Amino acid sequence: MKYEADQMITKASRYGHVDSPASSPGEVNLEDFIAEGYGDSDDTKAMEKAWDEICSSNTNVQPVLVVLENKKYYVKPITFLGPCKSDSITLKILGTIEASNNPAHYKDRYPWLKFSNIKNFKVEGGQGTIDGNGMIWWKNPTQPCTQSAVSFFQCHGLKVYGLKVQNAQEMHVRFEQSVNVQAVNIVVNSPGTSPNTDGIHVTRSENVQIISPIIQAGDDCISIVNGSKNIEAIDVTCGPGHGISIGSLGGGKSQAQVSNVLVNRAKITGTMNGVRTKTWQGGSGYAENIIFQNIKTDNVSNPIIIDQNYCDQKKPCNEQSSAVQVRNIVYKNITGTSATKMTTTFNCTKTFPCEGILQQEIDLVYKAK
User: Fold this and answer.
1) Taking a C-beta distance cutoff of 8 angstroms, is the pair 256, 283 a contact?
2) Which of 196, 144, 195 lies closest to 174, judged by CA?
3) How far, in Å, CA of 353 to CA of 132, rounded?
4) pTM, whole model, 2 decimals?
5) What are phi and psi of 26, to 5 degrees?
6) Which listed site, 127, 192, 220, 355, has its alpha carbon 20 to 30 Å from 258?
C-alpha cells in the first residue's frame, strides 16, 4: 500500500491548520443557524440544520461546514448522516466542539459525534478541538456512556487532517467499516489514568493510513481489531497509554481476522506495553502478515508481546481448545529501554501456537527505576 501525500497535507504543519481561505463559495458556518458558540447553550439543533444544509447541497461548488474560530459549541450526541448530494464535502474545525456531560444523553451508547455513510468526506482540523468532556465518566464508569467521541462509520474516501480530540468519554477516534482512509496529524490528549480511552481504533476497515499521530491516552494509542486489513501506522508518537495493539481478538468465542498491518517508525514512551498482539482463548480466525519496524521505546513495559492467553476480566479464563492463530509477524529494528526485565514475551497457546515469528535487530535494555 503506497502513501501519496495529498497537496493539502504538504501545506499543513503538524500543529498548524490546513491552509485555506477565510471564506469561500460553498462555505456555511454554524452561526448562520443561530448557534451561539459561547459554550453555555445547546447548539445541537443548529449543527444538525447546518449539516442538513450542506449535505443536501448539489451545487457545483464543494460544500464546507465551518466551526468558527474562538467559538465553543456545546452539543449532545449527533449523527451526521449521508449519503450527501455533492461528490465531496468538508468539515473545517477552527473552534471547539464540546460534549454534553449529562449521562442521560448517552443511554444507548451511540457515538457522540458519528459521521455515517459519507463518500469523499474531508475533515480539516488544526486550530480547533473536539472535547469529549469525559471526566465525569472516568470517575464513575457505571454511568451511561458513549463508545467513542468521534466515529466514522461506512465512510469511503475519507481524509482526516490535523484533528485534535481530547478528554474522550471512551475511545477518541474510531474508524468502522470504512475504506480508503487517510488520517494525518491526529492529536489525542487525555490523561494516562483515563480508562478505556483508546486513541485511534480501527475495526472492519480496509486501506487505512494513519500518518504522524501524537497520542496520549489511558488505553491503546492505536488498536486494530477484527475485520481490518491493509492498515498502515507511520511516524507514531505514543505515550502515555497501553502501546500499539493488534486486538484484542476472539473475545466471547468470536471469529476474528486481521491481516496486512504495517507499523513503521514509532516512538513509544512510558506505556504499559509496546507493540502487542492480544487474543482470547476460545476464539478463532487469524492475525497475520504484520510488521513492526523502526520503533524506539523509552521506559516501556513489555516492549514486544504476543499474548494468546489474554484475559481482561476478574474471573480466571480457562484453557480452551481453540484460539486465534497468530502467524507471520516481523519485529525489526526495535530499540530502546524497557521498564520490565522481560523485554520480549511470546505467550502462545498449546493448541494453536504462534507461527512464523521473526525478530531482527532487536536491542532492548532493561532500565531499573
Assistant:
1) yes
2) 196
3) 41
4) 0.92
5) 95, -10
6) 192
Q: Is 238 helix (H, G, I), strand (E, B) or coil?
A: strand
Q: Cell 514509532 belongs to which residue?
A: 266
Residue-wise pLDDT tens digits, 14-37 = 333 333 334 566 788 887 786 666
The question of whether 242 is a catalytic residue gets the answer yes
Alpha-carbon gap, residue 150 to 106, rounded angstroms: 14
Annotation marks residue 17 as catalytic: no
Catalytic choice (17, 201, 242, 307): 242
Select from 225, 338, 230, 233 the least CA-distant residue to 277.
Answer: 225
Half-sphere exposure of 318 (CA within 13 A, CB side): 3
Task: Give the residue-averaged pLDDT of 199-228.
Answer: 98
Map grid coordinates 443561530 to a residue.
34
DSSP label at 34? T
Q: What angle do CA 6, 172, 99 make, to 5 degrees?
A: 110
The identity of residue 306, as a single letter, is: I
Catalytic residue among 43, 131, 198, 219: 219
Report d(CA 168, CA 199) in Å as an integer. Answer: 9
Strand partners, 130: 97, 165
